[in-house]
Prior knowledge:
four-stranded mixed beta sheet, 29% helix, globular
Amino acid sequence: MKSASPLTSVNTIRDAAQAYLRWGLSFIPIATDGTKGPFFELLPWVYDEDQGRYHRRWRPLCERHPTVEEVKQWYSSRIPVGLAIVAGRVSGGLEIIDCDTKEIADRFEAVVADRHPDLHRILVVVESPRGRHFYYRTEECERSQKLALEPRAYASN
Length: 157
């Protein structure tokens, strides 16, 4: 499987963001504190009709790519800002399987390698802080959904 190397420096993240734009991917700036939450201070302002005021929202980037100017703004300071790819039609039919632990990712990879060795070789795999993400493109994008849960997680839902 192809594996992306970890991004650590501001320059490397900015370079990745510029490459993602060229590749037709949408993404949002995220905090680098381990929460993976949106970096709201950098997100676009959106007017909320019900509240009669503007809020910073990441949802517009589910419908459009960030602009070159937004990317320059997000990654031009010394403040560490990460990025998270927005999957779906906006990113050319990108879907992501997110395995929350390395153990789950290992089991998933073993099943894919056993049942679909050709697929196993072409998946793009990105290490996450706890697990792995598996990227692929499809013409029939689905909305985000849970495909499987750990038995203990299922019992609490």
